[in-house]
Structure formats: C-alpha cells, structure tokens
Amino acid sequence: MTMLVRALRPGVPADAEGFARVRRLALPYLLCTPESVRHAAARVHPGARYRPLVAEEDGEVIGTAQVYLAHDSPEPGQGCLNIHVRPDRTRRGAGRLLVRAAEEYLTDLGVTRLLSWTMDEPACRAFAERRGYRPGRSSHFLRLDLAHGTLPPAPPVPPGVELRTAADFADDPRPLFDLDAETVLDEPGDVTAEFTDYDAWVEETWNHPLLDRELTTVACVDGRPVAFTVARTDGGTRYGTAMTGTARAHRGRGLAKLTKSRSLRLARAAGLTEAFTGNDTGNAPMLAVNTWLGYGKCASEVRYVREIS
Q1: Would 199 be classed as within a structural domain?
Q2: Domain boundary among 111, 131, 158
Q3: Is residue 125 part of a domain?
Q4: Is the dihedral of CA 196, 197, 202, 204 positive or negative?
Q5: In the chain, N or C terminus with fewer CB closer than 10 Å?
Q6: Structurally, how many domains does the chain consist of?
Q7: What is the pLDDT of residues 281-305, one digit of tens each?
Q8: Are strands 78-85 and 113-119 parallel, antiparallel or unpaired?
Q9: Is the separation of the CB atoms in 116 and 129 below 8 Å?
C-alpha cells in the first residue's frame, strides 16, 4: 500500500471525479460534483489562497482537504481545513497526512487560528482533540423527502411583496449581492465574514455551476430584493439550500419562510426528490422554519478550533 498526499489537479478528470466522490460518500448531505470541484479550484477568491489536497492510495483518491484562508473576515490570521476520508478507507493514515499537510501550508501563510468542521461522531471528535483542537459551535444537516413528504400550506404573500427568481436578475445581479452582503453579517458562526468584492462574488457565487437561478427565490419590495433562499442542484434529483436570509429592515414578516417554501415547491415541481439544508444550532428562528417545512435532522457537525501561539 502506497499512501501520498498531493495537490489536486483540477484539470485531470480522475482527480476532480475522485475528489467529488470522496465528498459525496463522507458528506452525502452536501451537493458536490466534479464541476463544482473544478469551479472552486479556479474561481475561489485569490485572497483565500485555496489549496485543495487529495490523499491517494495506490493511485486512488481516498481522502480530500479543503484548505484556505478566511480572507473575507475582518480578523486576520484565520485558516480553515476541512478533511474528509472515504468511510470505507479510514484508519489507513490518510486523515493524519492530510491534516499535517494542511496545517503546514496554513502556518507557512502566518495563520494563528485553525478552524475545521468535524462530524459529531466519537471517532471524528477524538481525532480532532488528539491534535489539539477544541470544540466550538455545532450545526445540523437536515433532510426533506420531496418525493413522498407533504409540505405545509404555502404562506400568504404579504401586501407589497413580490416573489421572483434569481433568473429575473440575470442582467444585473448586483441587488442580490447587496442582500447577500447584508445578511451574511448576521449569520451565526465562528468567523465573521464581510462581502465587499462584487466581481469576486459574481465569479465565485453567481457563476457557481450548482446555483439554480430558476429555483432561487427572491422576495422583493418596490423591485428591491429583501429576502431570498439560494438553491443549488446537482443535475440529478438533489436540491440544497446554500443560504436563506432577510434584510434587517424586513425581518419578522415571515419572508424567510415564504421564500424557502416557494423554492421547495418549485423544486418538487421540477422533479427533485431530496432537499438538504444546514442549520447552526444557535439559529433558533431558522431551525423553526426548517422544522415547520418538515426537515428532519440526519447528521451533525462541530467546528473545532486550534490556537497557535
């Protein structure tokens, strides 16, 4: 058995396909395709210094690492490493080698705070804690059966509110960027993010290969977006929510529930059968919306943090 860790070669089909396969097997609750792997390698903001790694055993990709700087945070010196190994290839040293390579890369960039999402399972948590990481925030993965489940009655559209899709903003997505930049400031998390680079947002987010503009639902007042649910699809039967948010001045009107409910109905009408979303455990309002829609918890993860002196 020969095990090595190296940089992903996004232009090599076997690499992108292997990276996506590991992610799907280790995290079946998140959408990942070879196209999205190549997109991230080419389009993530240069300030992130994004470096995807693979662990290869006898020529087969069995583990992956997403390694990058939290470049959009006002607090410098933070780096992220998310490690995944195929469930049928664990305990072979791939995870250990990936962590070592990722930490060396980030510390060489001057990172003093390392953050990593880890599945909330005893073996995964023990793996992180043996390496000096300590648990922080947690999050749930939620699943909804669109094929056989029953959605609750659609909420009424409040007076003065119009529902559109992201496709309606194809000529000028700037209003959606402005809404995304406002809502991300209040998103619960260990790292505060600030979106200031519109061109980078267009490249990384608006042109993402999984973004489904027809299913992404936007609530508008006087033609201006004030709430949205961002939908992604994998080209098959799976749907995922990337973000749901409401502008501060319009919160408390049920617009998050309205846009997410409409998007799910559009997804079901389009023939999608499974819907996934993520929910920070401290975000009670969004958890209530997801519970009302019929989502059920299928897994959880914990953000582990390691401070480097």
Answers
A1: yes
A2: 111
A3: no
A4: negative
A5: C
A6: 2
A7: 999 999 999 999 999 999 999 999 9
A8: parallel
A9: no
Query: How far is it, in rounded angstroms, from Cα 208 to Cα 211?
Result: 5
- 86: helix, coil or strand? coil
Q: Which tokens in the block code for residue 111?
A: 């990172």
Residue 29: C-alpha distances to residues 26, 143, 243, 275 (Å)? 9, 8, 15, 9
Instruction: Please tell me the distance from the alpha carbon of residue 192 to that of residue 190, in angstroms, as a whole number.
Output: 7
Q: Are 90 and 48 in contact (CB under 8 A)?
A: no
Look at residue 124 and tell me if it is in a domain.
no
Which residues, at least 6 apart from 121, have a Cβ–Cβ distance to it below 8 Å?
Answer: none
| Stated pTM of the model | 0.94
Asked if residue 232 lies in contact with residue 31, where contact means CB atoms within 8 angstroms, the answer is yes
Query: 287: number of CA atoms within 13 Å, CB side?
Result: 12
228-281 confidence digits (pLDDT tens): 999 999 999 999 999 999 999 999 999 999 999 999 999 999 999 999 999 999
